[in-house]
C-alpha cells in the first residue's frame, strides 16, 4: 500500500505539467448530414375489420370460466371419450368396427325384407308348410286348370302357392309356343338357356328370380307385394298369347 501511494505522489507533478488546452488543439471533424428522400406511404387501420375480428369467439380472451356441464352432459362426454378410446385401440377398435358393420348390414336386410312384404316370423318360429293340391314331383302343367287353382289359392290367402302356379302357367305358355321343351325333371336355369329371344329370356329370368325367392325362401307375401308379382306374370303371359 505504501508503494502505491508513493507511485501516485510521484506521478502528480508529471500530470500537472501537461498544458490545459491539449484537448482544444485537436482537429475538429464536421458531421455530414444527408437529406432522406424515401417516399413514405401512410397506412391506416381498417376499423371495420378490427371490429369484425373482435366479435369472433376465437379472439375473445376474457378470463371467464367455461359454463359448468350438467350430469347428463358429463355422462355423454364420458361415453364419447370411451367410444373414441375403443376405436383408437388397434385390436378392440377393429373388432368394434366390424361389429358395427354387421349390425348395420342386419338392419339394412331387415328393412329390405319389410319393404318387400316378407313375413319375418321365421326368426321366431318354423315356417308354415304350404298345402299343395297335387304332388309337386309329379305335377303336369298340361293337366292343371291354372285359372281355377290360382283363384282358389288367392281366396285362401295362400300367395306363395299362387306364385308357384303363375310360374308353372308361364312354363306352359312357353311350351305351347315351342319356345322351350318342358320336362318335370328340368331345372329353371335349363329353361332359360333354351330361350333364344333375348328380351323374353330377360323377362322370364326376372320372373324366375321372384318365384325362387318366394317359393324356396319360404317367405309369406303381403297382399300388395303379391299383386305386383301377379301383374308381372300376367303381362308376360299375355305377350306370349
What would you say this structure looks like, in words?
The structure is a single chain. With about 240 residues, this protein is mostly helical. Among the domains are: about 70-115; about 135-240, no CATH class. Helices cover about 55% and strands about 0% of the residues. It contains nine helices and no strands. Helix 5 (about 145-155) packs antiparallel against helix 6. Mean pLDDT is about 75; it is low at about 120-130 and about 130-140.
Uncertain segments: 122-130, 132-138
Q: What structural class do the secondary elements suggest?
A: mainly alpha
Fraction in helix: 55-70%
Count the helices. How many?
9
Global Rg:
50 Å
Number of strands: 0
Shape: elongated
Q: Indicate the mean pLDDT.
A: 75
What string, H for helix and E for strand, traces the elements in order? HHHHHHHHH
Strand residue percentage: under 5%
Task: Calculate the terminal CA-CA distance, rounded to whole Å.
Answer: 142 Å
Largest sheet: none
SSE blueprint:
Elements: H1 2-16, H2 47-54, H3 71-88, H4 90-115, H5 146-155, H6 159-176, H7 188-194, H8 198-215, H9 223-240
Helix pairs in contact: 3-4, 5-6, 6-8, 6-9, 8-9
Brief synopsis:
The chain has 241 residues and is mainly α.
Features:
241 residues, mainly alpha, 9 helices, 57% helix
Amino acid at each position: 500500500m505504501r508503494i502505491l501511494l508513493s507511485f501516485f505522489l510521484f506521478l502528480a507533478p508529471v500530470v500537472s505539467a501537461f498544458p490545459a488546452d491539449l484537448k482544444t488543439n485537436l482537429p475538429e471533424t464536421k458531421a455530414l448530414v444527408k437529406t432522406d428522400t424515401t417516399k413514405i406511404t401512410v397506412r391506416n387501420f381498417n376499423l371495420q375489420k378490427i371490429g369484425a375480428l373482435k366479435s369472433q369467439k376465437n379472439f375473445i380472451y376474457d378470463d371467464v370460466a367455461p359454463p359448468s356441464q350438467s350430469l347428463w352432459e358429463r355422462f355423454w362426454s364420458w361415453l364419447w371419450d370411451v367410444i373414441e378410446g375403443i376405436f383408437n385401440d388397434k385390436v378392440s377398435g377393429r373388432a368394434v368396427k366390424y361389429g358395427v358393420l354387421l349390425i348395420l348390414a342386419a338392419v339394412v336386410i331387415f328393412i329390405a325384407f319389410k319393404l318387400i312384404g316378407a313375413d319375418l316370423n321365421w326368426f321366431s318360429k318354423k315356417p308354415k308348410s304350404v298345402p299343395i293340391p297335387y304332388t309337386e314331383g309329379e305335377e303336369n302343367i298340361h293337366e292343371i286348370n291354372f285359372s281355377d287353382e290360382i283363384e282358389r289359392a288367392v281366396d285362401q290367402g295362400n300367395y306363395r302357392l299362387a306364385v308357384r302356379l303363375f310360374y308353372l302357367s308361364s312354363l306352359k305358355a312357353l311350351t305351347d309356343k315351342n319356345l322351350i321343351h318342358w320336362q318335370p325333371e328340368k331345372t329353371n336355369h335349363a329353361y332359360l338357356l333354351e330361350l333364344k329371344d333375348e328380351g323374353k329370356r330377360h323377362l322370364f329370368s326376372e320372373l324366375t328370380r321372384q318365384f325362387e325367392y318366394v317359393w324356396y325362401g319360404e317367405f309369406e307375401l303381403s297382399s300388395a307385394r303379391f299383386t305386383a308379382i301377379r301383374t308381372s306374370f300376367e303381362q308376360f303371359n299375355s305377350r306370349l298369347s
